[in-house]
Amino acid sequence: MSSMNALLVTLTNMDGLSDQQKEWRNKDAIEHRDRYKLSESVPTATPTHVVAIDPQHLALNEEEDGLVGIEGPKQKIIRMLMDEEEGSRKLKVISIVGSAGIGKTTLAKQVYLEIKGRFDCSAFVSLSQNPSMNKIFTHILSQVGFKTRRPLHREYDLIDELKQYLRGMRYLIVINNIWSESVWDTICLAFALRKCGSRVIITTCIEDLGSVCRPNFYGHIYKVEPLNDFDSRMLFFRRVFSNEDACPDHLRKVSEEILRMCGGVPLAITSVASILAGQGDMMIEKWERILSSRGYELETDPTIGWMRHVLSFSYSNLCPELRTCLLYLSTFPEYCSIRKDDLIRQWIAEGLVKEKFGCDQYEIAEIYFNNLIKRSIINPVDIDDCGMVMSCRVHDLMIDLIISKAIEENFIAILDDQHTMRGSHEARRFTLHFNRDLENTEQNLVLTRSVHHQTRSISFLGPIQCMLVISEFKYLRLLQIEVYYSNIDSYDLTHMCEFFQLRYFRIRGILCKLPEKIGGLKYLETFDIDDNVKNIPSDVCKLSSMAHLTLPKHAKIPSGIDKLVALRTLKVSTSYDTSIEFYEGFGSLRKLRELELGATNYMSRDKVVSLAASLMKLGSCSLRSLILRNGDLSLEAGDRLNFWSPPPLHLRRLHVFEVVFSYVPDWIAKLDKLTSMVIRIREISKDGFGVLARYKVPCLVFEPLAMPRLQILNIQFDEECLYGRDDGVPCEPAGIEHLTNLMQISAHIHLAHHWMWQTPALPRRKVKHFSERHDEDGHGQVEEEAPVYKKAAEAMLTRATSKHPGIHYVNIQFIQM
């Protein structure tokens, strides 16, 4: 993308449905668009403009824009969780209860982000109404740091592993959106009940369920109340006008009426405010039209009825292209976290995005995505190290609307756990999502030949035995398979070489057999497979349309990488048998935006030289992210890259773990878009230090005004630092009080034994400590007394932080050398 920071495009008078038909080259594709009837569904409301938004600015400011009236409730819940009352070392459960859209998830997330650093491990999982327990436990295990070499499929195995792993650890787990007592009862089986000060937060719309979650544990119920009038006005006017004073007088009365209808519900307020902010003018007629809803007065809960009206209006107020992209979210599992990159690639593969106004498809898709966030239709979930949105989630009220609209518009057919079909067999997209654990069931849906011929997209999640017979679907454009249970050793996909229209292929969670050659798939743009696939088609590098290539760690990279002239993303791992042609070839990929190379073995000098030469060729391209992992590139590559010319000026992420630079290269200071960097250097000068974020030094002294925005400080010590060096040089950091915005310190101290604990570093307050040692199996064991190292570490860091009133906690971890 050409400088999204500077890009400002207004897309007006969009009639993309008819325009897109020009791009399709066969009658079948035209019928595909007609079948959706999207051109007939344009609302009477004037479509709002779509304006490009700087995605980094959006990610960094979304919380600031939206979080009104949350600080008080957040601090109250934190006090409930962290107080020193009797029984606080027991497992404590806080139930956050409130109606849909009231802000339970946002509140729980903010509490989680503020206190998770005080625990040994943490996890935040969101549930659907009919969740897969296997998926819940798998997600928790992955977030708390559990690693295993053997796959776990059985529910009781997952429960046992999680319980054993959490034993002796102080954990924080958030279970968002619990719908039933039976689900909670099952989740509770995995909680280790030792008195380690662990905490669990749940959110639910069902107040009785919140009460059920309390008796077996020590805890409280917190009921989320609607925003008061002051906070409601602040949230509304901030979204529409940036502040209340900017509201014109002629809109004051209608604004108050709109806020009265919203009833203090944040989702309703932000949704209607986003609509009004996108109108572009201040005509009172448009504001009054939002109030002219029908039917919501008959709802049992008028506020919920009004919210549904607002969400429906939000949908209808979108331009046709945005509305189609929004409908596509119905193909993902409900309440799941949707990765932005996957979503954008699927939009493009499905033909939902086209080039406009000198911007390519990816730039336009990025604009669409950011506008959906800005309108509060989708919400950011994860932000990456560059401040960009990585994933999003759709609110449960909105996803219900999207699914119903998608089925109504014949956009999708959904097969669920009961093997019942929602939607028409004539839909071009089939989604098979089995949220329950159906190890012993099989797919019994019978489809006609016409359905096989007209289906263009299949997205599958579930046990592999519930999968359709893929070989019958010859005209697929998109095939996505994610398996969480398999009763077979391998899944045969050799017939995919016949899917000549395929544009997107992604598979996860099952060992599968691919065809030896796929050269006939000339439209394939995304080829994304995980470590369960070993045999890579030998001619994958002959596919000239390939834009995103992700191969498993131990896969052999086929020859001809330089032929992939359309490639934007390349994620592969090299090995001893990777040909030198690969290292020479990827430098020819002029459209490359993201490059991630892993090396499993030592690289010969000629390969290192070729790799460095290819990287320098990419300096004149628009490379955004460069990651080099593992391997041993030593000083050879670093010495060559010291003189990278022209430098990669569009780079936002530079992580070169194994390249050793002699000094900080001058060209790094020219990368004004760079936001995340990890490099290794042999020697550093005063001039070079200004561009670094982290550096290992014998001692640290922070001068006044140093790093005024720093919030988290990670430092590492050797054992000798605890007692001072023989030469008398002080080891403890000095001047920490000058880091005015600092909130957290993480200290890693390298010893001969592995100890871990969390120390709340609150000066002038007595605190309690506990220590933990890990046995050979990785399970925690609580110790009666902390070792002498602990006392020395506490003393050193207490001295260092005693003059800083703003530090919330210090995390000390001893690591075996």
UniProtKB/TrEMBL annotation:
Transmembrane segments: none annotated. Residues 71-244 form the NB-ARC domain. GO terms for biological process: defense response to bacterium; innate immune response-activating signaling pathway; plant-type hypersensitive response. Residues 454-694 form the Disease resistance R13L4/SHOC-2-like LRR domain. Keywords: Plant defense, Repeat. This is Uncharacterized protein. One of its GO terms (molecular function) is ADP binding. Residues 332-402 form the Disease resistance protein winged helix domain. The keyword Magnesium does not apply. Gene3D superfamilies: Helical domain of apoptotic protease-activating factors, P-loop containing nucleotide triphosphate hydrolases, Ribonuclease Inhibitor, Winged helix-like DNA-binding domain superfamily/Winged helix DNA-binding domain. The keyword Repressor does not apply. It comes from Oryza sativa subsp. japonica. The lineage of its organism: Eukaryota, Viridiplantae, Streptophyta, Embryophyta, Tracheophyta.
